[in-house]
């Protein structure tokens, strides 16, 4: 199975070492994939994986979002938070952003 996305046209500047976090949750609600993979500076990525044989059949969900970065900004500005805030113990909370989920049908 391959999950991919093109880079964004808004110049997000994720950096050379940016990663994408890919999570696949099967029909039983179990996480069967939870991995990171390289992502380009514009957010484009391709991640290929094998669906584990013990994955529950039915409707699974796939999500992919930038790893260890804020992934949604309602203002249209690039306001990623510096690592210093996390090191200072400041907690951040997602607001008014929908988690990007795509269906995946697993058949026996």
Quick synopsis:
This protein has one helix at residues 83-87, and strands at 2-5, 19-25, 31-38, 45-48, 58-66, 101-106.
How does this model look, in words?
Helices cover 5% and strands 35% of the residues. It has 108 residues and is mainly beta. 12% of the residues are buried.
Strand order of the largest sheet: 3-2-5-6
Helix and strand sequence: EEEEEHE
Query: Largest sheet, if any?
Result: 4 strands, antiparallel
Mean pLDDT, nearest integer?
A: 81
Whole-number radius of gyration? Answer: 15 Å
| Poorly predicted residue ranges | none
Any chance you could write out the topology, listing elements then pairs?
Layout: E1 2-5, E2 19-25, E3 31-38, E4 45-48, E5 58-66, H1 83-87, E6 101-106
Antiparallel strand pairs: 1-4, 2-3, 2-5, 5-6
Task: Jot down its keywords.
4-stranded antiparallel β-sheet; mainly beta; 6 strands; 108 residues; 1 helix; globular; two-stranded antiparallel ribbon
């Amino acid at each position: 199975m391959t999950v991919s996305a093109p880079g964004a046209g808004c110049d997000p500047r994720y950096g050379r070492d940016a990663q994408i976090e890919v999570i696949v949750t099967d029909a039983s609600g179990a996480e069967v994939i939870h991995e990171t993979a390289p992502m380009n500076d514009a957010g484009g990525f391709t991640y290929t994986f094998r669906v584990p044989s013990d994955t529950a059949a039915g409707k699974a969900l796939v999500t992919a979002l930038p790893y260890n970065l804020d992934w949604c900004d309602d203002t249209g500005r690039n306001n990623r938070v510096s690592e210093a805030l996390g090191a200072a113990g400041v907690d951040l909370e997602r607001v008014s952003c929908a988690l990007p989920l795509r269906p995946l049908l697993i058949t026996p």
